[in-house]
Amino acid sequence: MSVGKNIPHDSARSHVSGESIFIDDKPFVKNEVICGFLGSPVACGKLKNINIDKALEVPGILGIYTHKDLLHNRWGAIIKEQPILIDDQISYMHEPICVFAADSYDAISEAKKLVELTIDEETPLLNLQDSIDQKLFLSEEKKIENGDVEKAFKEADYTLEGIFENNGQEHFYLESHASSAYPLENGQIEIHSSSQHPSETQHVVAEALGLSFHQVVCVVKRMGGGFGGKESQAAPFAAMAAICAKKLKRAARIVIDKDDDMKVTGKRHPFKNFWKVAFNKEGKILGYEIRLFSNGGAYTDLSGSILERAMLHSDGSYYIPNVKIIGRVCKTNVHSHTAFRGFGGPQGNATIESVIEEIAQFLNLDSLDIRKRNIYQGKDLETPYGQIIENNTLPEILKKIEVTSDYQERRKEIDSFNKSSKTHIKGMALGSTKFGIAFTARFLNQANALVNLHLDGSIQVSTGATEMGQGVNTKIQQVAAHAFGLPVSEVQVMPTSTEKNHNTSPTAASSGSDLNGMATLIACNKIKERLRAVFEVHSLGELKANEEIEIDLSIEREYIVFEDATVTNTTTNESIPLKELITIAYLNRISMAGYAFYKTPGIGFDKTTGVGHAFNYYTNGMAVSEVLIDKFTGETKILRTDILMDLGRSINPGIDMGQVTGGFIQGMGWVTAENLVYSKDGDFLSHSPTTYKIPSIHDIPRVFNIDLIENNTNDVCVHKSKAVGEPPLLLGSAVWNAIKNALRYAKPEQASKLRLPATCEEIVMLLDE
Amino acid sequence: MRDYVVVYINGERHKISGEKAFMSLSDYLRYEKSLTGTKVVCSEGDCGACTVIIGNVHRLVGNEFSYVPVNSCISFMHILDGSHIVTIEGLKDSNDQLNEVQESMARNHGAQCGFCTPGFVCALNTGIENHLKANNEITEKRIKNCLTGNLCRCTGYQPIIDAGLDVDLKSFVHLTDKFKSSDIIADLQSETSKEVLIKSSTREIYLPVKLSDAIKSHEEKSHTFISGASDLGVLHNKRGMKPNLLMGLHNVEELYQIQKRESDVFIGARVNLHQIEEQLKDEFREFVHIIHIFASPQIKNRATLVGNVANASPIGDSIPFLMVMNAKVILIGPKGERSVDINNFYKGYKDLDLKPSEFIKGISIPYYKENEQVKLYKVSNRKDMDISLVTFAAKYQVKNDVISEMQIAVGGVGPVVLRVDKTEKELIGKPFETSAFEKAGNILKSEVTPIDDVRGSAAYRKVLSKNLLMKFCAEQSLSTNAGRA
């Protein structure tokens, strides 16, 4: 029984010994060249001319390529509008202009200084509000509406309104973007990429080089972290390496350094959300109206879908009978913002969480009471987009966590601490996540898997899932091992490759294990069905050496089970070692490969009406965080965090716990110290860990309790599990809510102004006003 | 005279000369030796992915290497002369099996994507080895402290902490046992007793053995001095700074000493921050607390106090303390030694009272006088491993409920660390009370001249300056009250 077991990550042993191979760890092949790019020195303007003559003379420079060298220069996950290399309009600072191929990094640094650019500089638009005012949008207006908002606002006891602003977030995957390209015969090319989306990388490379898709193979062994940052934006870097490989007929490698990676790639979207809420004396929300504006940066990228998910998570975990959600993506002259764990969900969710705190402050109640009144419960299960929540575990989680976190007792302690302390303030709050699982673009909810059962009883599985540390390969390994009753050591999940699995979706939306795990299970079952039939024929003694075997697959033979490397007919108690059965099947010319396709049934969200069954199910969880703030410096310590999650029946509890801790801490970083800073010219200044501060080991909660509830109801997912990647990130809001709560104790009139992230500066300046 | 340096890597001898001596250790490992387990992420010593383990002949404990973690991306080969370097590839046991730290990391899900993992394993392995040698219990706090210099974006750290606490300590094999080092040490001691001059096509590095040779050479050539390279390494990687003439005092044995003298403590130019943290706990407790959050273990094992002083940054974390202590910078040159009060050492932004033929031999810090107290603060956007926004030091005496002495230095609010005379004067003769500090705080706000930068706005730094003064007042009052109670 492999499913449900806490086994180590399938790469754990090679990770801890330094033997895992990432792109730049691959040995250089003969004549392999190094690639780099030159980014734009301005954030906006027209590129009139590129003179590379002097740069070409630098010793070690083997080639310099511009947009003229690309056969197709537009890419984009939704709209193909973004140039791989600038051909006319410069849209953000450091946007790639040309690509160098060289025999050393020093040569590239030298050559960069010698490229002469003629640019007609234009004034960049850098501020989200300016873009709103000038109506510079990257999307049409989207709307989700339910009930009668106007009536609710007229009839409510109270109304409040405000603005919620959040900044973006850098992914800070440890391995920056990297690709290597190997030219093959007949113009074919093989790409190895640190990409969450090998299929898109394959397509973008093929188009850039003027090749058909069947001439390009993209392979992804693993990534050193992805978090969404390598969903769309890995592709152009692969194309840069590919163009060098094609031109020089030599292997080519591009490895972006951390500073350039942070400057050129997009982040989590900043949002500015204008909200109004209507509620009664008890704090029950009657109406909610929110206009979301996201900062998409220079190009559309995935911004439309991200905005949509923000809108779909604007209800948070709370039932709102009358609601109007309107959203728009704004254009600015910064890097094109992109997918990041949560994909808009955190921004929509953090807004309603903030509104809950506002209502509590207005009514002078504990925000926990407001949450209790508004949480999806009883018959109040209809979301703003008309989906009815099934198997709702939110009330159970809320009830339990109030007890396990010792909320009420600690509230009293905090009240008394804040009355007496002259130097510090404490705050505490709950944050919730109800994360919808499925791509909202229905067509992406598909996957395929290839399972090869070898003669020695070992298995290779290939799927479109990419491994970025989240453990999808381990879960797939467990699903396959479980299916055949084998130890996981008998299953190897192979590098993701577009020649084995094509038309794949990105490993994103937390759905990697859901989709690919299910496809793997179906593929395994296909082989098992054949083996069961063979076993039955074999048991009857009907196998003859010179006769073609005939197996009837129309019969279900669930009574034949695979356990402990043995196949057993539970009706006759006859059994055979799996290996032996495989040999019999092979000699009788039975296929032991399984290829399967899976699509999530029953989902469909109508983007035009804003109504539909957007999600397959929800992953729920809550966190209670307590913070201690130094009044003088704004420094914040997380004293304690309790997390309670519903992850269905976990395939691998150890891996899932790692996702919960990692996701929460990443969310905590977003709401506290991680701050994107730009210059007045649009230069991104916080482009390395010296200036961009992700949480360190000392920043995690002093007391950190994580637990899961039991839930066996999730029939719609592989082995009744639930997706885990993104949902816990939204729990970072508990920390932000707690800081807001602390400010309410110290300066109630300032608490409403708190922006996200709540940096030391943000806190000190609010307290100083 | 040698034209090479000698290091051992995972027990194997490497003689390095010419261009290769100017490579960073991480490049040397990855490109010259195909030891790609060591990863490079930030190239500025801020993420710890490139962490390797180093023991150096000048820092032996007993007759053995004292292994410490360092950032290989900002360590140059030439200044590693005399080192034994252990990389992630050197940690498996002799049967090619994972060691106990690696096993625990694998078992406890301490690795997700794996990119930061080799660095974590090296730092954790060293931390555990050193705590076991010191007979310390392996606690959660100690695990965290030895991993302050490593960033992980996947795990949220808890699984790594769990792994640290779950290491099978009974089976743990010390590196000093794994690598039999008496021959290595003898070899390196013999080599490092000879001076080094390595020339590449455009650059040279000189590693003298005697201080007198250093003085002579510097008078002739006016070298750029390199110490721990925790700043030069970053400038090299990020801005292509490659000084032509380098000198390192790494083989000058006498400069590794902390001398506790009658009226002061002398800290030699090769004394690193880790040594201060270990050896001056009793003398300068508050300063040692600041060093705890000064930088990561990896940096503190490389960076020297003299390097921090010579760097002359307005946010140098040691400088405010040294200023209020009236520490002396001991300069040495062809005309002998000269001592300069650090308060007079900085003439402007990165402008020092230092003649071209002179260099810094060490720093001397006088002991506290009776009744003198010191309060130090460092504020940064993240508590650990971050560059300061504002640093603050106050040394003071209270006699008969009145402030009789007050020296305040504030960093990060001007081109150099500032002594704020007007604020000091305002407080002298006043009772230690909020109202006096409130008034002085407003003066302080007008006395500082911060600028906007990526870490924080000028307005914020002004508010912080005053707030630190008020925090100092509040905490002092609290401790006094507590004392009375």
Automatic annotation (TrEMBL), chain A:
Residues 17-123 form the Aldehyde oxidase/xanthine dehydrogenase a/b hammerhead domain. One of its GO terms (molecular function) is oxidoreductase activity. Keywords: 2Fe-2S, Iron, Iron-sulfur, Metal-binding, Oxidoreductase. It comes from the Bacteria. It holds the Pfam family MoCoBD_2. Gene3D superfamilies: Aldehyde oxidase/xanthine dehydrogenase, a/b hammerhead, Aldehyde oxidase/xanthine dehydrogenase, molybdopterin binding domain. The keyword Iron-sulfur applies. Its cofactor is [2Fe-2S] cluster; Mo-molybdopterin cytosine dinucleotide; FAD; Mo-molybdopterin. InterPro entries: Ald_Oxase/Xan_DH_a/b, Ald_Oxase/Xan_DH_a/b_sf, Ald_Oxase/xanthine_DH-like, AldOxase/xan_DH_MoCoBD1, AldOxase/xan_DH_MoCoBD2, AldOxase/xan_DH_Mopterin-bd_sf. Belongs to the xanthine dehydrogenase family. PANTHER family: XANTHINE DEHYDROGENASE (PTHR45444). This is Xanthine dehydrogenase molybdopterin binding subunit. It comes from Halobacteriovorax marinus.
UniProtKB/TrEMBL annotation, chain B:
This is FAD-binding PCMH-type domain-containing protein. The lineage of its organism: Bacteria, Pseudomonadati, Bdellovibrionota, Bacteriovoracia, Bacteriovoracales. Keywords: FAD, Flavoprotein, Iron, Metal-binding, Oxidoreductase. Coiled coil: none annotated. Pfam families: CO_deh_flav_C, FAD_binding_5, Fer2, Fer2_2. One of its GO terms (molecular function) is iron ion binding. Residues 198-370 form the FAD-binding PCMH-type domain. PANTHER family: XANTHINE DEHYDROGENASE. InterPro entries: 2Fe-2S-bd (IPR002888), 2Fe-2S-bd_dom_sf (IPR036884), 2Fe-2S_ferredoxin-like_sf (IPR036010), 2Fe-2S_ferredoxin-type (IPR001041), 2Fe2S_fd_BS (IPR006058), Ald_Oxase/xanthine_DH-like (IPR016208), Beta-grasp_dom_sf (IPR012675), CO_DH_flav_C (IPR005107). It comes from the Bacteria.
